[in-house]
From TrEMBL:
<comment type="pathway">
    <text>Cofactor biosynthesis; thiamine diphosphate biosynthesis.</text>
</comment>
<feature type="domain" description="FAD dependent oxidoreductase">
    <location>
        <begin position="10"/>
        <end position="355"/>
    </location>
</feature>
<dbReference type="InterPro" id="IPR006076">
    <property type="entry name" value="FAD-dep_OxRdtase"/>
</dbReference>
<dbReference type="InterPro" id="IPR036188">
    <property type="entry name" value="FAD/NAD-bd_sf"/>
</dbReference>
<protein>
    <recommendedName>
        <fullName>glycine oxidase</fullName>
        <ecNumber>1.4.3.19</ecNumber>
    </recommendedName>
</protein>
<keyword id="KW-0560">Oxidoreductase</keyword>
<dbReference type="Pfam" id="PF01266">
    <property type="entry name" value="DAO"/>
</dbReference>
<keyword id="KW-0784">Thiamine biosynthesis</keyword>
<dbReference type="InterPro" id="IPR012727">
    <property type="entry name" value="Gly_oxidase_ThiO"/>
</dbReference>
<dbReference type="GO" id="GO:0043799">
    <property type="term" value="F:glycine oxidase activity"/>
</dbReference>
Length: 375
């Protein structure tokens, strides 16, 4: 074990997309940051994510402050991803294909009409497409789909390459990254700083600690003296090798999604279940994905997945992330529990946390995200 003790202004616990994005934003603002990751950066939910930037397809209810945050983050993505690419000098897929939210029944079509109306208030570009217009957009979609909401503004990224570029961008801006730290704990928490103990990489003293440890955040409940009800939800995904047929958009249904990546794969997800921290793939989960991919795109019936994987999504008790500085421990800022929206929220969340660190207005009603709301 490394017994060296380091002193840093800001320590970010967690090297997933949320932690790295926060570090990148803070470094752009000329702050000194160190990221501490117990394993390898992007090795958990981030690397397993399909990378969809699709708040309009995935949030069907009336808008709230969480929808507002997702909406704003999507609008930030063109500039954000360009910045990451410029600083890192690495490329990654940022696909502006747009999306289709497909329905099979008239009752579901009425729900699309309702969604269309309230989303107009957010200047969301959308329309309901049917018949030949729908077949033109997605020629291989099953004829059983009677209509779809078309969102040309929804995009997706290739998550593994995105997190590699984000890590490299952090390094080039002078962010310290400590990987393979093993177990990470708080040796001491003061009003003006924290002492962080790592199993494999020594101890770190920080003036401020940002906790971005996703599904593992509940491990710090006792140390922080608050309830942190964040639970791992296993998401299983599979991929086919693309042949003559392709999926031109992200295609959602009530049971899952199908999309093509530029690496020649067709990705189908996501089967969700509660399995603790188990990331193994199950026949039941994959078979459910296959059933729905066949229903949406009949050409996949003769295809076998060449890749199957699973990741752990950090879900909170009420579905909203925990974001904010702790009043009783002002040296601690929490940013965890983004569930299936970590990739999407990475730019807006990063700016939000950086503003919190700098004691600037959040530009968002933070009551919904109060990290001590369960205490």
């Amino acid at each position: 074990m490394n017994t060296q003790k380091k002193q840093v202004p800001i320590a970010v616990l967690g090297g997933g997309v949320i932690g790295l994005a926060i570090a990148f934003e803070l470094a752009k603002r000329k702050h000194k940051v160190t990221v501490i990751e117990k394993g390898l950066c992007g090795g958990q939910a981030t690397g397993a994510a399909a990378g969809m930037l699709a708040p309009y397809s995935e949030i069907g209810e009336d808008p709230d402050d969480f929808f507002s945050m997702c909406h704003e983050s999507l609008l930030l993505y063109p500039e954000w991803q360009a910045d990451v690419k410029e600083v890192s000098e690495l490329d990654f897929e940022y696909n502006t294909s747009g999306s289709l939210h497909a329905v099979f029944h008239e009752a579901d079509e009425l729900a699309l009409e309702t969604r269309l109306q309230w989303q107009k208030g957010w200047q969301v570009q959308s329309e309901i497409v049917k018949g030949q217009a729908l077949r033109h957009l997605e020629p291989h979609l099953t004829d059983d789909v009677i209509a779809a909401m078309y969102y040309p503004g929804e995009h997706h990224v290739y998550s593994p390459d995105y997190v590699v570029a984000l890590k490299e961008a952090c390094l080039r801006l002078g962010v310290g990254i400590i990987e393979n730290a093993g177990a990470v704990s708080f040796a001491d928490i003061r009003q003006d700083g924290v002492a962080i103990a790592t199993e494999q990489q020594g101890n770190i003293d920080a003036d401020t600690c940002i906790v971005a440890t996703g599904a593992w955040t509940s491990e710090y409940e006792e140390a922080l003296q608050i309830r942190l009800p964040i639970y791992p939800i296993r998401g299983q995904i599979c991929a086919f090798e693309q042949g003559m047929e392709e999926v031109k958009h992200m295609v959602f249904s009530s049971q899952g999604y199908v999309l093509s990546k530029r690496n020649g794969s067709i990705v189908c997800g996501a089967s969700e279940d509660v399995a603790g921290f188990d990331t193994s793939v199950t026949d039941k989960g994959i078979n459910r994905l296959l059933k729905w991919s066949h229903k949406l795109f009949p050409f996949t019936e003769i295809m076998e997945p060449f890749h199957k994987w699973a990741g752990l999504r950090p879900a909170t008790q009420d579905g909203y992330p925990l974001i904010g500085r702790l009043g009783h421990c002002p040296s601690i800022i929490v940013s965890s529990g983004h569930y299936r929206n970590g990739i999407l929220l990475s730019p807006r969340n990063a700016r939000l946390v950086a503003d919190i660190y700098e004691n600037k207005p959040a530009g968002l009603d933070m009551n919904l995200f109060n990290p001590v709301r369960f205490s």
